[in-house]
Amino acid sequence: PDELTSLLVVMLYDLQDRKFQAREIFDEEEPVAEVRKIEHYLNSFRTKLAAALARWRVKHDALSIEYILPETIRKQEQRASAVPLCVWINTFKISLQDLFSDLKKKGFTRVESVSDFDRYTYCVDQHCHDVLFFPSSLKEELLNLDLFADCKLLLQDKSRSLAVHSAQALLNAGDDILVAHVGSHLTIAHISALTIHSMSRIFVCGVKSSAKADELRNLFSHMGCKNIHLLHEDFTEIGPTDPRIQEAKVILLLPQCSGLGVGNPIDFILNEHRDAGLLRDFFQGSVSEDKLSILAERQLNELMHAMKFNKVQAIVYCTCSIYPEENELVVKKALDSGVEENQVQPYRLVPPVFSTCSNSEPSTETFFKTEPSEISSGCFLAVLAREKDSPENVSVQDILARAAAKGLLDGIVVEKSKEKNQKVTQRTQHRHNITGSGTEPKTAKFLRYRTVSNIKAEVCVSKAVNTKQQKDVNRTKGYAQLKKSVSPISGTALPKVLKHTSHLSPAGKAYERQTSTRKARAQKERLVLKPVEIVLPPVITPYGRSQRNKPK
């Protein structure tokens, strides 16, 4: 029967691997009818099968059975076996420093790059600070370490870590993230580990069955993840106004792709739960035009759907494909489609940022792309971000949250800054109402042009403003003491209001003095706000920071 073909192929390969000798059967084995039946037929034709294989090897001058495979597949296998093992550190279970110490005790030496590998060595990735590389020859030994058994180290292709770090770099302290496909549970767990110190929630689409949901919850619980929420709807079935995802500011889109850029197709299919038909494409070395067209159309629809979420500020799009039809062309078509509504800012491409701790140099490339090689898998990554924030989206609270997420506030409590921001906002609105002017205040323009790339400058400005305010308070106190000590006041030093109050009654004079005092106090309050009125150089997007990555 056709359903037993796969079993037949596996058992035939196992038979030739044993030099066509009969397999030893143990008493504790549980008999399986289909297996015993196929095994009986193969043993009956062992001699003929061995002779047929020998004749084929002589005819094609093949050194081993591996030469039956096409040359492209053999090269793919050689490249996959040479690609360094990529793992990421689960910070729920162990810190980076503790892991490095543990590896040192186990006899591993840290080197600068993969070119320095020599048996028991490892290196830290230049883009992702929690990603390590090991020589591929150590795979069996590494998987037997307690670090892997305890989920402290997790084996996964680097392309997924790049996408995760790029998405995390776009999050504020309390922003949520929407993952469009469930894919590998390792990818979702990695996002959770990177958001360990924030209040961010991770929403994962496409968990259809309750059995799958229970399985994922058990896996996440074993790895220490707690901020993951599973949604049974597909990504395209969730509307932009869904109340569950109103705080989501970043969408991570890892669509189904041809996957010809991955180093190890078997691991990719198993970990990502992809179609086994991908193996056929690897054997052929290419993907048919019809299949490529279907994949590209589906990817475009998903990306355009992601652009419809008004409150989302950035989209991370990542594939393991080597075809422009699935990469650059999909992104370009989505940007040209104009699916965003008129009241929201349009998207544009921005260079990806992977980690604030990375050692990579800044880049101005709008795409991050690597070709399959002997040291890495193929990967394509693009980041789409809103061109600029509208005044209602950018506030002092957002800026402080971004600064806190990047560790720039050094212990300053954000909640206090929120209260102070509310007071300043009320005071600014009150002054605007008094003037009755229809022009936009400079403080509003200032908030409009603030971006994440200027956060460090904003923190410095904030400190300077605080210093200025303290000086103004001290100056005010000194002025009050001087006023008490000096009783005679010359006519030239008097305000104009007081100069013309000689004809008023005592009650009128008191009223004028109170009016003058209120005006003076209002002027001092305006002086406190004056240093804030600084216009920094405008930047189009809040995510357009100076980049730290450089595509290979």
TrEMBL record:
Tell me the segments the record calls region Disordered. Answer: 419-440, 503-522
Q: Classify the source by domain of life.
A: Eukaryota
Keyword Transferase in record: yes
Which terms does the record give in the GO molecular function aspect?
methyltransferase activity; RNA binding
InterPro entries the record matches: MeTrfase_RsmB-F_NOP2_cat, MeTrfase_RsmB-F_NOP2_dom, NSUN7, SAM-dependent_MTases_sf
Q: Which UniProt keywords apply?
A: Methyltransferase, RNA-binding, S-adenosyl-L-methionine, Transferase
Q: Which residues form the SAM-dependent MTase RsmB/NOP-type domain?
A: 75-387
* Binding positions (S-adenosyl-L-methionine): D234
**By its UniProt entry, which Gene3D superfamilies does this protein fall under?**
Sun protein, domain 3, Vaccinia Virus protein VP39
State the PANTHER family in the record.
METHYLTRANSFERASE NSUN7-RELATED (PTHR14663:SF2)
Kindly state a single biological-process term from the GO annotations of this entry: methylation
Organism whose genome encodes this protein: Ciccaba nigrolineata
Q: What is this protein called?
A: NSUN5 methyltransferase
